[in-house]
Each structure stands twice: as C-alpha cells, then as structure tokens.
Fold this protein.
Amino acid sequence: MENTIGLKNLRENMVDYINRIAKGESFIVFKQSKPLFRISPLKGEQWEEIIDFTKIKKGGVDIKEILSRL
C-alpha cells in the first residue's frame, strides 16, 4: 500500500520525501482530504545525455544563442 501525505507536509519536508522516494517509496499527496497526485520513483527509465553545453563553453551556453541557431 502506498503512503499518504498532505501537500503542506510535502512542501515543508521536501528533502526528506525526496530521499524516501529515491529509496523506492511512493506517496499519494492529498489536499483538503482530496487526492491530488501520486509521486513515485522512476523504475527502469534511463535518461540519455544528448549534449552537455558546459563542455562546449565554460559556464554553459546562453539559451538565446542556441535558439538563434535553430
């Protein structure tokens, strides 16, 4: 069974919940006794790095410069 938490509690203790989610726990978040959303860890999903703009230019690349080249 998933844990239930209040939205205010989530906001006030975000770091604690992030750590618990990273360990595999899931939560259903409520506001005024109504369920709002479920928060759970990503399972088996991989993020692929396409390009690291900090390797192109120290400090990254300005978004306006990127968009002007598209």
